[in-house]
Write a sequence for this structure.
């Protein structure tokens, strides 16, 4: 009695594994792209919310307050407690693991009937 697999059985297994890989890999790659895009959108939403809250508090303290040159430093939002200092910026091209406090980025602010904050990537 022989032990082991025949060449045909091994070839069948290899072909099945190849088919599984051909089907699975593109969906995994697409899933990774989708999750990165979602992470970037959520990052912008968090920045927008923190900025709006900060501006509303500042305007509540002094109705004539305006940000210097229409910009707020992201590090200022962290130091004031509106953003988490350990938050990673997925938009940072040179180092996506860089925390928001390590960057000297600014957020452009437009104060009108609505407060609009735009994070400058």
């Amino acid at each position: 009695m022989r032990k082991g697999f025949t060449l045909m059985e091994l070839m069948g297994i290899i072909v099945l594994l190849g088919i599984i890989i051909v089907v699975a890999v593109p969906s995994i790659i697409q899933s990774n792209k989708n999750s990165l895009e979602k992470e970037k959108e959520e990052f912008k939403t968090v920045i927008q919310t923190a900025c709006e809250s900060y501006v509303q508090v500042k305007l509540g303290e002094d109705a004539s307050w305006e940000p210097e040159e229409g910009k707020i430093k992201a590090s200022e939002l962290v130091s004031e407690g509106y953003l988490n200092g350990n938050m990673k910026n997925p938009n940072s091209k040179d180092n996506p693991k860089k925390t928001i406090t390590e960057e000297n980025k600014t957020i452009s602010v437009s104060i009108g009937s609505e407060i609009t904050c735009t994070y400058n990537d």
Remarks:
- The mean pLDDT is 85.
- The chain is about 50% helix and 10% strand.
- The radius of gyration is 25 Å.
- The longest helix spans residues 7-61.
